[in-house]
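Batch manifest, entry 17 of 40.
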Amino acid sequence: MQSARLVEQPKGAGTPPEHACHFYVEENELATTVATFLSPAFVHGHGIVAIGTPSHLLAIERRLRTVGHDIDAARTAGQYVPLDAAWALRQLMVGGLPTSERFDVVIGTHLERLERAHGGVRAFGEIVNLLWRDGKYQAALKLEDIWNEVLGYRPLALVCGYSMGAFREAARPGLSRVLTTHTKVTVQRTAA
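Output type: structure tokens
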């Protein structure tokens, strides 16, 4: 499998704001793409938040270890914060929708601390994928809007992972809205 490069390595201090979206078919390809995206944060000493399913987090960490990153040391030092996407989703929801206030408590505190301590942050999130998969399209789009609000005041490079399988027939009208909430979109391609 090949995948497009999501975000260039940061030059100098901090992380340039970016809200990328990656559509994937194969889960191991997602792990490779996200590990490639997060790797520069380890190299440059930036903070990392990874919000994913336990199996995806393990696969991403496995890939990062393969290229020489010490995940355990980064976690212990507070540079790397993995969060279970299902847990985070439960914490964000109020009346069926995520709220900015809950986002600030559940995720924003990590982003702020990492920015202060490490000068920049890279994040991976698949909460939106869980919402979309469950037919909660309005909630997924609301969460994308909250991420964009955060990008307005925080130097953050973010990639959202969406399974192509989550875009069933009923969800197709919302696809254009998903695309417009992101500054960069990549799709898994098969090797020629």
